[in-house]
Known about the structure:
CATH class of the largest domain: Alpha Beta
CATH architecture of the largest domain: Alpha-Beta Complex
Shape: globular
Radius of gyration: 22 Å
Mean pLDDT: 97
Helix content: 10-25%
Bound molecules: manganese (II) ion
Distance between the termini: 57 Å
CATH superfamily of the largest domain: Fumarylacetoacetase-like, C-terminal domain
Amino acid sequence: MSSRSFLLVPAGSHFPLENIPFGVFSVQGESSPPRGATRIGDTVIDLAALEQEGLLPGDSFRNATTLNRFIERGRAHWREIRKTLQQLFSAENERIRDNTELCARVCHDLSQVELHLPVTIGDYTDFYSSREHATNVGTMFRDPENALLPNWLHLPVGYNGRASSVVVSGTDVRRPSGQLKGDRESAPHFAPSRLFDFEIEMGCIIGKENPLGESLSVDEAVDAIFGMVLVNDWSARDIQKWEYVPLGPFLGKSMATSISPWIVTLDALEPFRTECPKQDPTPLPYLQPREHWTYDIELEAHLLPEGETQQTVIAKTNFRYLYWSIMQQVAHHTSNGCNLRVGDLLASGTISGPEPGSYGSLLELSWKGTKPLTLHSGETRTFLQDYDRLTITGFCSGEGTRIGFGEVSGRVLPAHP
Ligand code: MN
């Protein structure tokens, strides 16, 4: 069933012909504006050029520096484009394969391109949908007996985040300064965050607008999702701890959120559907899909200190651990009539698993700083240090194929003096 491309797909690549993710690229050193792309192996394919050649139907990519116009065209169009690309680049199709000039114009080596934010993100929402994460945080900061707050098992808790500071993988992130107050201090002071952290998350890119005042049912919700990306939701725990009462996260979160450059469609993830965790108590009817599923996506976080060459795997978790599914998140988000728009980012919340090695943040991995992690270099970490590089990877594995997201990576720069 697996088909091959005439383009080289290295063993273990996240980007075989079955994937066909969507992103935005420009060629290093060229003045042409960013434009839509897909990726096969380590080859980045120019979708605007294919369109101009008449090889792709429609006009989604011409003169477009993000994917929003393409995504607005709807699911039938996404499917047609993805299928056309799989045919154009299959090993049997000579159209591009045997035309050296055309191939050179359309195909670029990954090392020669710059990847950009794939969509204009109007709004960014962050959920809190991992039961293990919410339990760990509740245990550390409140009461182990009542780690989950009373609403948690009844609704996917979330907050409206900041879209302007969502950045693409590879962007350095500056350690924020903010108000900090130690437990024994009587007043706060303003200083660089000392408890700077990452969060392993995944995000949905919205593909369909619901009109203001209209809800999407939990069964309609999947059709409103274009695809998914990896998310690192950087977090300043000390800023967050002092500021969050009573309205929730603010400056401890809004300095930066990093996403991976390739949006993997739900069609590509289809073979990796799996069951959701059992929900008890049964959610209210508007959160009960007729068919309920999630995806089996393995996630890893790697930490690379400055000057080192060997990164340390510090966490391994899986998207399927999430208690609240993406369809429940979308249904809940729109249940009050709030309109989601094409390009909106809905992040899952930190994804932690049941074992200590599967926790999705340093807050949990180091248990509030009480259990330092030892890296390959022999150094230890409780929270991120300046010039640490944190990389999250994610992929699905099945019978000989791997469909993946690549990575979301970012380096911590020192706070401004
Ligand atoms: Mn988060």
